[in-house]
């Protein structure tokens, strides 16, 4: 269909772009024309899409109407392709607010180093709601007022209760009561002997069903993937947690094949938001965010290929940390998006995200020629009295404001508070071509997913997947080599633009999502849901973290008029996790007194 092709955008050379707030760069709002579909309508659309000739025509117009051809495929730009967003490690001067972790330490020793960075405070009586932390569990176990086995028994009971008719939260795809209790019994004996492995010993941690964790199959939220890709051993990040004594409590629910932002899954049920069970928890790490929100675990692991940790974290009112590309080993994670997917951490508090970040960091293979050493691991000293001074936060006005009024006002208030309390300045900038980056990321993640699944799809019965996934796989398979190469050129261009932005400020600040959690409709149960308008609003601020491999963190800062959580996101330079975590901790300190208890919440630690 070359005769129908659009004329592509001609992009300015990066050194000619004005990144000031007075720039003439035009912010393009997402122009998503696809209507919402589910149920019978979705089935009919899929039937047409999978017909050879009609499907090809539909796919062409889907790409055209979403500006992929104009902004990506036929765009004119100077940059060569950049295939992997892995930056060489620069041995920068250590910040006073951080400590360097010696290489060669075990995961448990790294956790001990993280513990020494914490400030131990009594529970703040001004807090309206307090989430139990890893240190709360550790102190309770050492006091012998409660044991890991008691906590495990309560957890199993709570999971069964959450799955009962009338509640049906659909937190987990798989959990084994006997395995959980076995781990808890072993941990209890270690405490009785006075020999806990680390502060993570006996702490329940859930694992997204995209990450290998024995003895469970890894389904990826599907009904078929585990049949052709068996789980043979723990993923590297899971091994590290297990070596610290953590109780691995099962595989959390997720959007099927990670191919969506809502967490709606027609096979294992839709994970519901503990703040309002009639609404989505977000995806694709939906179950991991929800179990932390509901108090079943202080921490869970997720995978973030396009905001899949940060989006559900924001919607469920918890912390979501996505480290730099290459920081955490990807070994044992379903390899469906090699250059944009990263293991991430969902936690009730910034403190807990730091502890688990310390545990799972390391063991990453140095696979790329651009990286000749594993980057040094710095972790921040979490002391409110020792907050960083002079922090500059880059804010691109039109992009920042492209969200609901409640989110915009809440995030602007948060920035005002950071200035009043810490003197941190907001620097107005213009980050160009955000929509082009979103579409280039979509081409990239889709192409990688299609290539990864190619040999599995030969054995794939399409009827085993939801309509939304079948549409996604059809679109992914329609991307050409030109589409992919052009997307990588845009990646290189955006990498250079962001380098210039980081020359103007320490971090970039945005809302985490453009809307709060929306309602789950009755027609999604058997087919899933095609809702690209809400999807674009949810993913709007996530792309740079994945496409460019940048570390990012979301922190809960308030609620909308319906009482639904709102998060703010900080995006940093490569390998700057220590600064991001410290910034997140400072933000959390200003907001946690106003945190609210979810409607669905289980207290596993209070003494009976």
TrEMBL record:
Q: Which Pfam families match?
A: Amidase (PF01425)
Q: Domain Amidase, which positions?
A: 178-580
Q: List the InterPro entries hit by this protein, alphabetically.
A: Amidase (IPR000120), Amidase_dom (IPR023631), AS_sf (IPR036928)
Q: Which Gene3D superfamilies match?
A: Amidase signature (AS) domain
Q: Source organism's superkingdom?
A: Eukaryota
Q: Name one GO molecular function term.
A: catalytic activity
- This chain belongs to the protein called Amidase domain-containing protein
Q: Which organism is it from?
A: Lactuca saligna
């Amino acid at each position: 269909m070359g005769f129908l092709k659009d004329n592509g955008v001609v992009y300015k050379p990066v050194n000619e772009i004005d990144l000031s707030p007075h720039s003439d760069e035009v912010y393009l709002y997402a122009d998503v024309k696809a209507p919402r579909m589910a149920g019978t309508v979705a089935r009919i659309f899929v039937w047409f899409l999978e017909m050879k000739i009609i499907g090809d025509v539909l796919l062409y117009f889907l790409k055209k109407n979403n500006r992929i051809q104009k902004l990506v495929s036929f765009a004119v730009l100077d940059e060569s392709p950049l295939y992997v967003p892995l930056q060489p490690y620069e041995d920068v001067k250590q910040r006073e607010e951080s400590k360097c972790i010696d290489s060669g330490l075990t995961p448990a020793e790294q956790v001990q180093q993280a513990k020494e960075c914490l400030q131990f405070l009594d529970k703040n009586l001004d807090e309206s709601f307090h989430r139990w932390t890893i240190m709360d569990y550790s102190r309770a176990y050492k006091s012998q007022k409660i044991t890991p086995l008691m906590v495990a028994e309560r957890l199993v009971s709570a999971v069964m209760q959450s799955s009962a008719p009338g509640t049906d939260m659909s937190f987990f795809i798989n959990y084994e009561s006997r395995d959980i209790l076995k781990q808890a019994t072993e941990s209890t004996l270690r405490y009785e002997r006075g020999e806990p492995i680390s502060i993570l010993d006996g702490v329940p941690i859930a694992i997204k069903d995209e990450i290998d964790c024995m003895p469970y199959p890894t389904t990826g939220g599907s009904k078929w993937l585990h049949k052709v890709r068996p789980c043979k051993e723990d993923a590297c990040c899971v091994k590290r947690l297990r070596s610290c004594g953590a109780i691995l409590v099962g595989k959390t629910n997720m959007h099927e094949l990670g191919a969506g932002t809502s967490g709606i899954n027609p096979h294992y049920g839709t994970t519901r938001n503990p703040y309002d069970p009639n609404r989505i928890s977000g995806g694709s790490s939906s179950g991991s965010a929800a179990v932390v929100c509901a108090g079943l675990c202080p921490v869970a692991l997720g995978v973030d290929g396009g905001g899949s940790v940060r989006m559900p974290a924001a919607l469920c009112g918890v912390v979501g940390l996505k480290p730099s590309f290459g920081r955490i080993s990807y070994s044992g994670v379903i390899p469906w998006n090699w250059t944009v997917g990263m293991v991430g951490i969902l936690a009730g508090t910034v403190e807990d995200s730091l502890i688990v970040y310390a545990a799972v960091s390391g063991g990453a293979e140095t696979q790329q020629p651009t990286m000749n050493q594993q980057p040094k691991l710095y972790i921040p000293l979490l002391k409110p009295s020792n907050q960083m001074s002079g922090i500059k936060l880059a804010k691109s006005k039109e992009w920042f404001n492209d969200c609901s009024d409640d989110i915009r006002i809440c995030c602007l208030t948060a920035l005002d508070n950071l200035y009043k309390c810490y003197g941190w300045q907001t620097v107005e900038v213009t980050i160009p071509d955000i929509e082009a980056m979103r579409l280039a990321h979509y081409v990239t993640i889709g192409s990688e997913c299609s290539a990864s699944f190619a040999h599995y799809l030969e054995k794939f019965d399409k009827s085993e997947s939801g309509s939304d996934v079948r549409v996604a796989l059809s679109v992914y398979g329609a991307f050409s080599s030109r589409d992919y190469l052009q997307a990588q050129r845009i990646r290189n261009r955006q990498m250079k633009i962001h380098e210039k932005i980081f020359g103007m400020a320490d971090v970039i600040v945005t809302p985490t999502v453009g809307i709060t959690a929306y309602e789950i409709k009755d027609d999604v149960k058997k087919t899933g849901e095609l809702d690209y308008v809400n999807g674009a609003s949810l993913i709007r601020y996530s792309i740079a973290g994945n496409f460019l491999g940048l570390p990012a963190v979301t922190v809960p800062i308030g609620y909308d008029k319906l009482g639904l959580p709102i998060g703010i996101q900080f995006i940093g330079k490569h390998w700057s996790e220590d600064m991001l975590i410290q910034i997140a901790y400072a933000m959390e300190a200003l907001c946690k007194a106003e945190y609210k208890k979810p409607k669905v919440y289980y207290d596993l630690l209070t003494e009976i």
